[in-house]
Design brief:
alpha/beta, globular, binds D-glutamic acid
Length: about 250
């Protein structure tokens, strides 16, 4: 059973890709909506929350973990691997960097939460491949997605505000370094122009997962949130194109 987790509904972009590739895969999903956003929190808090989320999934039968959140991937993967040395653990950063490198990109934009950008995790890996990086934190994107404002006038203005320096930087590709951002891909793609490839860090991790673990295809699929709301269910249904019932998760803390 795969455990997939994010601070909110953003990780469902990973679930969507998994269901597209393997509709019968068994998984348990956790979104820590009660404590979202993680992207503005300190590294210590991000590590603590990540370990609590993972403990919940392991207690619910997860035998591999997909960290469907760049913020956690940037700060907490080492702590996770230390805590669960026997579990396959997939982060979203390494595969996105691999895609950028395969595309032959010379200059890449990276957008993410403040914590992801401040960690320098993408910069280190991309620069090691000889790729120049223009990174930009876009803290308002997560609340826009959680609100379902995916193509509103306000969203377009905020996209322009954050991404103008990246567009001026003449990048070949843009890494959507937050699993919430693929929901904004149409508006981001229009602003950046067709010549810029958008890399969805969530979609590429599914590729790695399918190569790395034997899937249990009993179609046991459960979804948990630490704070449930009708809005989250609407967004999930819109995104996954099927009704999603979230159960309430009580973390062990
Ligand atoms: N979806 C998370 C990520 O990929 C960020 C959301 C948050 O700030 O909590 O970084």
């Amino acid at each position: 059973m795969i455990g997939i987790f994010d601070s909110g509904v953003g990780g469902l972009t990973v679930v969507r890709e998994l269901l597209r590739r393997s509709p019968d895969a068994s998984f348990v999903y956790l979104g820590d909506t009660a404590r979202l956003p993680y992207g503005n929190k300190s590294p210590e808090t991000i590590v603590r929350f990540t370990l609590e989320d993972a403990a919940f999934l392991v207690a619910h039968g997860a035998t591999s973990l997909v960290v469907a959140c760049n913020t956690m991937s940037a700060h907490a993967v080492d702590a996770l691997r230390k805590t669960y040395p026997a579990l396959p653990i997939f982060d979203v950063i390494t595969p996105a960097v691999r895609v950028a490198s395969h595309l032959g990109a010379k200059r890449v934009g990276v957008i993410g939460t403040r914590a992801t950008v401040a960690s320098g995790a993408y910069d280190r890996l991309l620069e090691a491949q000889g790729i120049e990086v223009i990174a930009r934190a876009c803290p308002l994107f997560v609340p826009l997605v959680e609100e379902g404002w995916l193509d509103d006038g306000e969203t377009k203005r905020i996209v322009k505000h954050y991404l103008s320096p990246v567009r001026q930087g003449d990048v070949d590709a843009l890494i959507l370094g937050c699993t919430h951002y693929p929901l904004l891909a149409p508006v981001i793609g229009r602003f950046m122009g067709r010549s810029v490839s958008l890399i969805d860090s969530g979609a590429v991790v599914v590729e790695e997962l399918l190569k790395g673990v034997q899937l249990d295809s009993a179609r046991q699929q459960s979804y948990f949130l630490t704070d449930r709301s009708a809005r989250s269910e609407e967004i999930a249904q819109q995104w996954l194109k099927r009704p999603v019932n979230f159960d309430k998760a009580d973390l062990l803390g």
